[in-house]
Amino acid sequence: MTNDRHPEGSTEHVLAVFEEFRKRIDELHIPEFLNIDVTMAQAKILRLLETEGELHMSELVRRLGISLSTLSGHVDRLVQQGLVIRRDDPTDRRQVLVSPTPAAFELLERFHELNTAQLRRLLETLSHDERLDVVRAFDHMSRAIEASSLAAPQERKGPSR
Predict the structure, then answer these.
(1) Structural domain boundaries of the chain?
(2) Dmax (CA) of the chain
(3) β-strands 84-89, 55-56 pairing
(4) pTM for this one?
(5) Which of 19, 54, 83, 129 has its C-alpha lying 20 to 30 A from 42's C-alpha?
(6) In this predicted model, what pLDDT tens digit does every residue of 74-133 receive, in sequence order?
(7) Dihedral (C-alpha) 139, 142, 143, 144: value to the nearest 10 degrees?
(8) Per-residue pLDDT tens over the stretch 25-67
(9) What kind and span of H or E run contains 105?
(10) Residue 131, C-beta contacts closer than 8 angstroms, at least 6 positions apart
(11) CATH number 1.20.1250.20 is the correct assignment for the domain at 40-103
(12) What backbone phi and psi angles, to 5 degrees, belong to 90?
């Protein structure tokens, strides 16, 4: 894929190619994605809980950058769907803890399986050499992630209370 607006190999060129790739992936993903009954905001909450485990509502508010009342509405719906449990913190009754249920982990696994199945179908259309190019690209990006996380590990994850 070439892009006349940006020099080949420049950061802006790579971003433009990635944006085109993302749009095409979204087109493939939309029918399956629409069958999952959570909003994007709820998916963010579930993803945080999957990664962090149980969190205080106040920590979710801070990490998501939303108001407590907005978060409460999302959590209420997730509780109704059986995806999270909300309970008082036994060490501080003023605090509320939210944790994922097994059903939440199953739903998140469904997301993962959709992505993996989609990627598998795409990779199977490529030649062996093209798949090796993809592996090299993933390796490059993994090294970039490692380098950036070593430089600023606290920027990704705030303190948990």
Answers:
(1) 40-103
(2) 60
(3) unpaired
(4) 0.66
(5) 19
(6) 999 999 999 999 999 999 989 999 999 999 999 989 888 888 888 898 999 999 999 999
(7) 120
(8) 878 777 777 777 888 899 999 999 999 999 999 999 999 999 9
(9) helix 102-123
(10) 123
(11) no
(12) -65, -20
